[in-house]
Design goal:
The chain is about 50% helix and about 20% strand. It has three helices and six strands. The protein is an alpha+beta fold and about 150 residues long. A hairpin with a 7-residue loop joins strand 3 and strand 4. Helix 1 runs antiparallel to helix 2. Strands 1, 2, 3, 4, 5 and 6 form a six-stranded antiparallel β-sheet that branches. The model has no long low-confidence stretch (mean pLDDT about 90). The chain has one domain. This is DUF2203 domain-containing protein. InterPro entries: DUF2203 (IPR018699). It comes from Solibacter usitatus (strain Ellin6076).
Length: about 150
Amino acid sequence: MSKRFTLAEAQSLIPEVDRLLRQALDSKSAYEDAERAIHDFNQRVMMLGGVIVDRHRAIENKSRRDNAAAQFRAAVQAVQETGCLIKDIDIGLVDFPTSLRGVEVYLCWKLGESGISFWHSVDEGFRGRKPIDQDFLDNHQGDPSQ
């Protein structure tokens, strides 16, 4: 069973999750850039019949790609270790499990939003987001105090 958050607990994690998601997206972009460089390099080598190969450049591109992949994995793992669920890395969509009247639901946050203002049922997803209202505040709960 996953951790269940109160709204306050989830809100307190937003700055860290925001930072980590931005790191992951930067690493993903760096990975994609390195992959393109590797592809372009390989195309040039093929066009030249493999006669002229800049091994240093090939090694550098592969190293950049591998480092970016490792940084991406580390950032994603750090987000997951908070207990929240990454739903779409490309848009920075994250859910925080909580309970509403004893039923698991998700607090929903997207990169760029100032805080958590929405929730949805487990089955509805992003399109089913509802504004957090007083009824939700009065009836949701996280894990019992540790």
